[in-house]
Each structure stands twice: as C-alpha cells, then as structure tokens.
Amino acid sequence: MRRVSRLAVAGAATASLALVLSACGGTSTDASSSADSKGDMGLAIAYDVGGKGDQSFNDAAYAGLEQAKKEFGYKTQDIEPTEGETDADKEQRLVSLAKQGYNPVVGVGYAYATAVKAAAEQYPDTTFGIVDDSTVQLDNVADLVFSEEQASYLAGVAAAKSTKTDVVGFVGGVDIPLIHKFQAGFEQGVKDTNPKAKVLTQYLTQTAEEGGFSSPDKGKTAAEGQIEKKADVVYAAAGLSGQGVIEAATANKIWAIGVDSDQYAQEALAKYKDSILTSATKDVAKAVYNLAKSVEDGKPATGIVRGDLKTGEVGLADSNPKFKSDSELQEAIATAKEKIISGEIKVKTS
User: Fold this and answer.
1) What is the predicted pLDDT for the residue at 113?
2) Average pLDDT over residues 307-328
3) In percent, how much of the chain has pLDDT > 70?
4) For the chain, N or C: smaller number of CB within 10 Å?
C-alpha cells in the first residue's frame, strides 16, 4: 500500500492544461480541487537540460519511470525543461505535479535544488526526490546521489590501458563541482595506471544555461581539438553534448568513453557504437525506480541515498565485445574496483 492515499484528479482537460502551463512557466491551476476521475497517480519526473532523448542522464531517469509504471500499473508523468527557465518555473512544475497527486515527484538534476525544497515544504505528505544534489535536507526529500568519481577512475584505467599515444582527453559539460568529480576520478585512474600518460581537459561552458550539457556541436569541437593534440581516447561527462564527442571519435577512428548510460547500447548512437569503448555508468534508473518502490511499499526513502561501486550503482559498461574480451584490461579494471571498494584506493572528488 502507498503511504499517501491517491488524490482524486481533476478532469483530464483541466489537469492537462495545468501541466502544460506549468511546463511553459505559466500559472498552474489546482488540479486536485476539481477532481472528477479516480486516476492512480504514481511517479512523476521533471527532466534536466537536454531532456528526454539525450541517450544519457535523462533517458536513464525515464527508464526508471517506465519500470515503475510497468510494475505498479499506475499513471506516470514526465516533463521537459524549457529554455531559459527560472527556479520559479521549476518550482511551479513540481507543485503542479504534486497537486495532481503524483507521488513521488523527482527533479532530475542539481538545478532543481531550490525548486524541490520549495515544493516539498508546500507538500509535506508527498515524497520528492532530486538527482545529483545532497543539499535539500527535509523529511520528505530523498537526495539521490552517486560516487561518479569511482566509475570515472575505472574509465581512467580503461583509457590508460587503451591509449597508444599516451594522450587521452576529458570533456566536461559545465565547469561545476559535480563534473569535477568525473574529471578527478578519471585523471587519477589514468595516472595510477600509466604515469606517462597526459590528460587533456576542457569544459564546454561555465553554466548550464550556455548549453554545456545540451550542445553536441560544442562537444564535437572540443573533442576534435584534443584529437589534434594526439588524444586517442576521449571521455565525455557532458550529457547530450557527449554525442558530439562520440561523433568526433568515430570520424577520427579513436576511442570514446560514454557516460551515465551504456551508450554503446543506445539505439540512437548505433552508427557510432564501434567507437565507444565503454561507458562510466551511474544507475539513475535504479535510483528513481527504488524511490518509487519505497513509496509504493509505504516506507518512503528520505535523506541522502548514495549509489557507488559497492552497491553496484556505478561502474563500467561492458557491451562492447572488444572491451569485454580484452583480458588484460578487464583484469586491471577488476583489481582497481576491488581496491576502491576495500578502501585501499581512495578516489579524489576534486
């Protein structure tokens, strides 16, 4: 049984209009006050920049939503971001979902911190989740965070064992502490494995609003610059922009390392997959699904919920047969993983 009883929902047209208005930054209406149907409202997610179809972070959240929808048989909702939106727009979007009876409501990405806090304070009986942020500390909020630096360390091991030029690249979407974790782990993994290797680093933008996570053209240009400097493995932690990095890797016949989701297995990237050595994954899908399940079971998860190598929620994908069949590489990765889990290797976060 769910902890919070389902709210009756407004007529479909009213609820739909409220949702559209909130997504566009307009004024939402109280869908719960004019209910005339008995919709069973479950998990709702609001996407980060890049939206659904990024083959990465947001798509992973959607996969978790789809799993919950299938297993629990309830209605779900997922909403795209809008260009230039404010914290107030994000808050209105989350409030609209809570009004309609969705529970839990998840903001996908650290940019939702202010909005999640405000919405959660207004709806204390609704469980909220936020991915990649641990600053919202309320009794009805789950901070879904990951040890990305650990997976990135393993990506560094893979890059160091695969480079022939002793030059590898890192492309970060936005110059922020979250992405610094990816960079720090990757550089440490490279250096611990091959001290002679050089790591070229470039951030695409200073803020997300400038398109660092949503501009494949920026990613492609950055990767091409690193390839010109002899990089033959490039790791991108840049959301949708990473697709440009992968495209550049394919064109120049070098290796790319994907991020968040198993990008080798993404249908939209199929024509590039032979250039995707591996991906440093974090199981956003599992985190989102687990939050939904905790609500469904009547024991909502709250506080900091962390996924790491030990829990299996970060790691390296092995869909590429060339990567999986390289026994020397796999042995090096397995050894590093064991040492990280045991604490023998302490991975830097900055």
Assistant:
1) 97
2) 96
3) 89
4) N
Rounded to the nearest angstrom, the gap between the alpha carbon of residue 335 and the centroid of all alpha carbons in its chain is: 26
pLDDT digits (tens, 9 = 90+) for 134-154: 999 999 999 999 999 999 999
Residue 184 confidence (pLDDT) above 60: yes
DSSP calls for 3-67: SSPPPPEE-HHHHHHHHHHHHTT-----GGGGEEE---EEEEEE--TT-TTSSSHHHHHHHHHHH
C-alpha separations of 145 from 85, 126, 220, 275, 288 in Å = 24, 20, 28, 29, 11
Phi, psi of 163 (to 5 degrees): -70, 145
Whole-angstrom distance, CA of residue 55 vs CA of residue 266: 6
pLDDT given for residue 51 in this prediction: 85
Close Cβ partners of 286 (under 8 Å, ≥ 6 residues apart): 64, 307, 313
Cα(62)–Cα(43) distance, integer angstroms: 10
The single-letter DSSP state of residue 79 is E
Question: Tokens standing for 203?
Answer: 């951030």
Give residue 8's pLDDT: 34
Distances (CA, A) of 88 to 23, 52, 85, 112: 11, 21, 8, 10
